[in-house]
Amino acid sequence: xxxxxxxxxxxxxxxxxxxxxxxxxxxxxxxTVHEQExxxxxxxxxxxxxxxxxxxxxxxxxxxxxxxxxGVELTGDHRRVEQVRRRVGMVFQSFNLFPHLTVMRxxxxxxxxxxxxxxxxxxxxxxxxxIRVGLETHALKYPSQLSGGxxxxxxIARALAMQPxxxxxxxxxxxxxxxxxxxxxxxxxxxxESGMTMLIVSxxxxxANRVADxxxxxxxxxxxxxxxxxxxxxxxxxxxxxxFIGKILSASH
Length: 253
Ligand code: ADP
Ligand code: MG
Fold this sequence. Notes:
The protein is of the alpha/beta class and 253 residues long. The model has no long low-confidence stretch (mean pLDDT 95). The chain has helices spanning 49-56, 78-87, 103-114, 119-132, 148-161, 178-193, 205-211, 229-234, 239-251; strands at residues 9-20, 23-34, 38-42, 64-69, 72-73, 88-91, 166-170, 197-201, 214-219, 222-227. The structure holds adenosine-5'-diphosphate and magnesium ion. The site of magnesium ion has 4 residues, from helix 1.
């Protein structure tokens, strides 16, 4: 994905630190995301990837540093958290669909309640999104009647229905059977190609190599190294990055 070098900043993180009690989960993180940029965050389990993603949409409160999303700085102020959440969509490892609502209602309810769309308008939008993720024939089913891969594609459509400026994805294929991973990654790849700004935590290195403008490698709560996939995967500068990539590649062969 070619990002214009002068694309405006949509997320700006400076000196971000976050502790859980005495445990420091994030240490002095700096990260900038530009509009239409796709960033894949990699790193060992426990390195703080989820914490970082969760801080960006205000699911976790940080103790120091600044997070600015589309001009809104996240502070303790609840109204700002609301403003940021309007701009930032999130897809989780566990799909978190409403079990008692149909696929159509799962997608339409957010725009109806929060964007004040009419039911007809929200459902028309939902149908367009279902076509986009290849699930239009499943609109009237309930989540339990779908496979994991299908449920995750509904979760992506639901996030998109809120017209986010940025989409955050936290290991969205980790709970899926292997044969369903690709259908979800394909949807994300198409979104990337359509210009959606995304911050994606993933262990799928081939996918990361294909879609990312930049890879960010985290370890022990720090951003150790970042760079374009070609550089980071084939010529990492830092020893910790080399060790992690070596381990991942040897595990996948
Ligand atoms: P990752 O997503 O990279 O696996 P996380 O961001 O989930 O890492 O976690 C980073 C560290 O913070 C881990 O050591 C984890 O145990 C710790 N942690 C995460 N959430 C909490 C929490 N709510 N309370 C205490 N510790 C937490
Ligand atoms: Mg995680």
